[in-house]
Amino acid sequence: MNIAEILSVSVNEDNLAWKEGATMPVEYVAALSAASEIGSDLLRVRALDKQAYRRVVLLLANKAEKQGMKKRLFLSPAMAQILAVCAIHEITQPQCLVCRGAKVMVTEKLKVVCHSCGGIGLHRYSDKDRARMCGVSAESWPQWERRYHMVMQILVSNDTAARLSRIKLGKHLYSSVDIG
Fold first, then answer.
1. C-alpha to C-alpha distance for 7 and 4, rounded to whole angstroms
2. Where are the beta strands (DSSP E) in the chain?
3. How far apart are CA 121 and CA 95, in angstroms?
4. H or E element in which residue 14 lies
5. Which of 13, 122, 142, 163 sits a CA distance of 20 to 30 A from 104?
6. Which residue, 59, 96, 86, 61, is CA-closest to 75?
């Protein structure tokens, strides 16, 4: 069962009983409620919820605009949304672009470690990658880098509750979608 199915069943379950040694539906709902609005939507984005994706982009962009004004890192609403989309992509798509997170490719009787990620299964986004995703030239990226890291910091801090819930409830809640 994937995360969307587990949460759907959990929210509609009317049994609020607790049982030692078992994770009950009420605990899934409680774990999700511990997340911020951005965090819970990001959890749903990982389950491919398009409405949650649109919501998290707008919430993150709005927060970034406000925090940017406080830090004197001004962002237009359009640029805040672009940076939000890129940060969400980086967090939700950490897999290597070549092996798609497999780490090793098996051909016939030969195991070949992915040359791109070196067998770790993750893509390390470079400044050039981030500039390209944001539609900014590599030369002008330094002007946007602090803004992007601010957006990323907001996103990661809002994702923390969902990650802590994962630790408390165990990996089986996220078995179909790995969040790190």
1. 5
2. 104-107, 110-113
3. 6
4. none
5. 163
6. 61
CB within 8 Å of 115: residues ≥ 6 apart: 98
Q: Which of 133, 150, 162, 146 is nearest to 52 (CA)?
A: 162
Reported pTM: 0.71
Domain residue spans of the chain: 3-92+121-174
For residues 59-63, average pLDDT:
94
- Residue 5: predicted pLDDT: 66
Closest-CA residue to 134 (of 80, 82, 60, 62)? 82
- Checking phi first, is residue 125 left (phi over 0); if not, alpha (psi -120 to 50) or beta? beta
Spatial contact of 80 and 73, defined as CB atoms under 8 Å apart = no
